[in-house]
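Action item from last week, closing it out:
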Amino acid sequence: MTDFLIYDVFSNEAFGGNQLAIIPDATSLPEEDLQRIAREFNFSETTFVFPPEDAAHTAKVRIFTPTMEIPFAGHPVIGTAVALSDEGTAPNMVLELGVGPLQTHAENGFARFTTEVPLEILATPSVEEVAEALSLDISDIQTNVHTPQLATLGLPFTITELTSREALSRMSANIDAFRKGAVKYPGALDFAQFAYWRDGDTLHARMFAPLDNIPEDPATGSACATLGALLRKIIGDDLTVTIRQGEDMGRLSLITLTTDGYAITVSGPARRVMQGRLVY
């Protein structure tokens, strides 16, 4: 039998933040079962921890959504790092991911990771396409700082700024529009949408990826990192902000985002809420 852990990530409170299933020792699991297990948990992501390929590193971490393996995601890195720390791993870690080795630090239920993967702009979806996907009016989309940008640091999202907190709360996913976007932008992770409203140093955000079986995500660290890289590139100055995500679905996540040139750091808490064994 194989142990599993469940953590709530980007929250100090149980049943807040984003749920993450972690298999801390996946070495005995058949390859064909990894996707099945992730689908069974049906969280936005499940991580499987293996010995590192490079002995100088801490662990190899594979990340699965309910439908596919992905090379990088934020809350799985934070949650897995805290889980390893809780089991006695030293604070400074190097986790091997699909995007390469990632420097992480975790102790006392708090973790951070820093990525210097170059920002890539894949496309610029139109305001009309994004508004249709999110069931918004065109006037709800803010374009003064940037138009909608399909961007990636390893996992692609269409990033859009909105004109008001009310518009953010009003959003809902239009599945037909997501399907059209996924066909038009085939490298866009099923046209996943990350929208935000900025209030000074606080950003309120929501993320929808319904075609990947994620109707809404309570916390999306990889999208936050991509947003940080995008704003750093456009504005030209470093920033430190707090991102509030998941609030509209009753699972508040608090994500700290800091930029230092090309280095993007995402940090936040995580706590264990359940544990058990796979017995199939």
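Closing note: Residues 180 and 191 are 9 Å apart (CA to CA).
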